[in-house]
Design a protein that fits this description.
By secondary structure, the chain is an alpha+beta fold. 22% of the residues lie in helices and 11% in strands. It has 4 helices and 6 strands; from the N terminus they run E-E-E-E-E-H-H-E-H-H. A hairpin with a 3-residue loop joins strand 2 and strand 3.
Amino acid sequence: MAELVNSYRKTWHTWHTGRHDKGGGHPLPLGDPMLMWSFNRDGESDPGLASDRARVLGVEPDATRERRQQLLDRAHPQRGVDALASEFSGTTPVPGVREAAPGHGRDEARDASPAPRPDRDG
């Protein structure tokens, strides 16, 4: 987990894998890809989804969060954390999950235009 603490990212789901309240998904990739991302504040996820996840996976979210407190010093601010904040109300921050200041995201160098290469770019 220590290596993944800063892995906030989005991912593309290429087919429906099931819903907690409606049963299983499709056995083959069908339909349009859907962009998915992490919940970044308590209260963003449906309470039924959270309780079903805990029951099905046999996890105790409060105990897991307590064990992960030791990783807070490794958590870096990341871009995109607040992108959907206005879409939810009544949420509370999760310790260690915070938006990077403009120009200070962990991916700034990766997002920048590459330096010209004389051997390729003239």
